[in-house]
C-alpha cells in the first residue's frame, strides 16, 4: 500500500511538471520491463522488446508493472511481463523489429 502511495505521489508531482500520470507510469514500467527482459532473454537488445511489451499492455498492466519500480519486482510482475510478451500483437511487434527471439 505504501508503494502505491509513493507511486501516486510521484505521478501527481510529475503532472505539475508537464507529464501525465500515464507518462510517468509508462516510464517506470519501461524500467521494470527492461530489467525483466534482460534477465529472462539474455543476449537480446532489451529496449525494442520492452517497447513492444509496453505498447501492448493495458494501462492497468502498465500501472501494475510500474509498481515494481517502487516496491520491487515480484514474481507476479515477471509473470505479467512474460504474458504480455507472448501475446500475438506483441510477438508481431517483436518480429517487425527483427527480434524474432521469443
From TrEMBL:
Entry superkingdom: Bacteria
UniProt entry keywords in alphabetical sequence: Signal
Residues of the signal peptide: 1-21
PROSITE patterns found in the cross-reference section: PROKAR_LIPOPROTEIN
Name of protein: Succinate dehydrogenase
Amino acid at each position: 500500500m505504501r508503494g502505491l502511495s509513493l507511486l501516486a505521489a510521484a505521478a501527481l508531482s510529475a503532472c505539475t511538471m508537464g507529464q501525465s500520470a500515464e507518462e510517468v507510469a509508462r516510464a517506470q514500467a519501461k524500467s521494470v520491463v527492461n530489467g525483466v527482459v534482460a534477465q529472462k532473454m539474455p543476449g537480446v537488445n532489451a529496449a525494442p522488446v520492452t517497447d513492444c511489451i509496453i505498447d501492448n499492455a493495458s494501462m492497468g498492466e502498465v500501472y501494475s508493472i510500474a509498481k515494481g519500480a517502487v516496491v520491487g519486482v515480484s514474481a507476479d510482475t515477471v509473470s505479467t511481463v512474460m504474458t504480455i510478451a507472448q501475446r500475438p500483437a506483441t510477438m508481431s511487434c517483436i518480429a517487425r523489429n527483427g527480434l524474432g527471439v521469443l
